[in-house]
Design brief:
The chain has 370 residues and is of the alpha+beta class. It has eleven helices and ten strands.
Length: 370
């Protein structure tokens, strides 16, 4: 029979292999995403991502001299605009299998995200005769979300919506344009938000995954775990609802580094304490408030928080909770498979895992501040 240390090593190797397939850039909905508005006259595309990485990639693709790293934001926008032809070259919007002719009609900065840019494009090809739409781009690394909506780009509340995650140059599923004709009921809309909430945790919400794992590692029994997860859930549900209602607002430039710091704090505390305290529950609740603002930012980034308030809140929250439950169950299965004695559990699993989570949280905090 393999020794406990060997079982831990083998399990860690498997987990690291899996994690390598997950983008380490947490909150992908807050960095890169695409929204397509399918109207009868034309199709509008809104492409949102971090400006400087986009400029670096465009310059490399165009084979031009790279811009200096300290280029002012307005100059970055101008430079990206000048590379509009390169942007269009690496976007594929297919209508009934025919590539639409896209043009860049504007570039704007994203509110509350000074480093992010939104590129607005329109197809020259009318979509009135088309029946299906597909999308692909090579401008993004890793996974990113795509939302397809009815109406023009100025529509505040879409009548219907599709949503999926795409990885790299993967092509989207085909979207039937005629299916956007009928408005979507609020609670049917909630069903879609369950999937969105779940995918915000798994597979791409690595920061939230690590936070939940940090809670799990200090839980010596089911009650301790339930208390921590309940405090976290109640807190992030409160701020998610308040933020969606417009009563609480905090820029992502502040929220995201604090979320990373919360991950590091929880993991570091795991290294210095062995029991759950009232103080720990209070800290988890406060950090839950921060994570709720992060969830709200993800919804707002995709424009999903404007319509069907109750259905959106419930659907997204249910998806988040299901994602967290999946993380806890997965961690429990790993612990069960290791079959460590109580004296081995902390030495061989809690301490190494907490140290790794703390390092990742500190790295994210520094990265998001810079």
């Amino acid at each position: 029979m393999a020794s406990p240390a060997r079982r831990v090593f083998l399990t860690a190797t498997v987990l690291l292999t899996i994690i390598r397939g997950i983008t380490l850039s947490a909150h992908p909905t807050a960095t890169s995403f695409v929204v397509i508005h399918a109207a009868p006259a034309a199709v509008a595309v809104s492409l949102t991502t971090d400006a400087r990485p986009l400029l670096m990639k465009l310059e490399a693709l165009a084979g031009v001299t790279p811009s200096p790293a300290d280029l002012p934001l307005d100059a970055v926008d101008t430079r990206i605009g000048a590379l509009g032809a390169t942007i269009v070259e690496h976007l594929e919007l297919d209508l009934d299998g025919t590539r639409a002719d896209l043009i860049v009609r504007g570039i704007e900065r994203v509110k509350d995200r000074p480093d992010a840019i939104r590129v607005l494009l329109t197809s020259r090809t009318p979509s009135s005769a088309a029946t299906t739409l597909r999308w692909r781009t090579s401008l993004f690394f890793g996974s990113y979300p795509l939302a397809v909506r009815a109406g023009d780009a100025m529509s505040a509340v879409p009548d219907a919506e599709q949503y999926e995650w795409l990885s790299g140059m993967a092509i989207s599923q085909p979207y039937r344009l005629g299916a956007f004709a009928a408005p979507q009921a609020g609670w049917r809309h909630a069903g879609r938000l369950v999937l969105i909430g779940f995918t915000h945790i798994l597979p791409v919400g690595l920061d939230h995954v690590l936070f939940v794992l940090g809670l799990f590692l200090l839980a010596s029994n089911a009650k301790a775990l339930l208390l921590q997860v309940s405090a976290f859930t109640v807190a992030h549900s409160c701020t998610l609802g308040l933020a969606m209602a417009g009563w609480v607002r905090l820029p992502g430039a502040i929220v995201e580094p604090l979320i990373a710091a919360s991950i590091a704090y929880i993991a570091i505390e795991n290294l210095v304490t062995t029991r759950l305290s009232t103080w720990r529950l209070g800290v988890v609740f406060l950090f839950g408030l921060l994570h709720g603002l992060g969830f709200a930012g993800a919804l707002a980034s995709l424009g999903l928080s404007d319509g069907h308030f109750a259905a959106t809140l419930v659907g997204f929250n249910v998806g988040v909770e299901l994602g967290q439950l999946a993380v806890v169950l997965g961690a429990a299965l790993v612990v069960y498979a290791l079959r460590l004695r109580p004296d081995q559990y902390r030495r061989l699993l809690v301490r190494p895992a907490s140290a790794a989570i703390a390092a990742m949280g500190i790295f994210w905090a520094i990265e998001r501040v810079l």
